[in-house]
Amino acid sequence: MVDQDIRFRHTQGDIGPLKFPSTSSVQDVRERLFADWPKDFPADAPTAPADIKLICNGKFLNGGETLNELRASMGDPRADQVMTLHLVIRPQAAVKGSAKGSEKAPAKRCCIIQ
Question: Domain UBL3-like ubiquitin spans what residues (predicted)?
């Protein structure tokens, strides 16, 4: 089992690099990142691991993928290279706003073509 160094790039700064076993799933990475979130990081901390969205090669990663699968999709970089994943935190306003949106009456639309 090979360990993989991963740097997480956020708009407010970088986190890491942190070491993960290559057999770790994306969900395992999210959970560790949530547990080890830096106290002095300028961005708002996530409230749950599900609030952390990871991006690799322009695609959001789902929780079931392993780091080995990501390495293969990146052209199988050397084991000593640091893998960079982009990190996005789901804003709390979006979570709260989605509940309010469901309380509203459905919008009515009309289209007339003559």
Answer: 5-111
Q: How many residues does the chain have?
A: 114
Q: How far does CA 113 lie from the centroid of its chain?
A: 44
Domains located in the chain, CATH noted: 3-92 (3.10.20.90)
- Alpha-carbon torsion, ordered 69, 73, 75, 81, to 10 deg: -60
pLDDT, tens only, 12-28: 888 888 999 988 999 99
* Contact (CB, 8 A) for 49 and 30: yes
- Indicate the pTM of the whole model: 0.72
Q: Residue 100, Cα to own-chain centre: how many angstroms?
A: 25
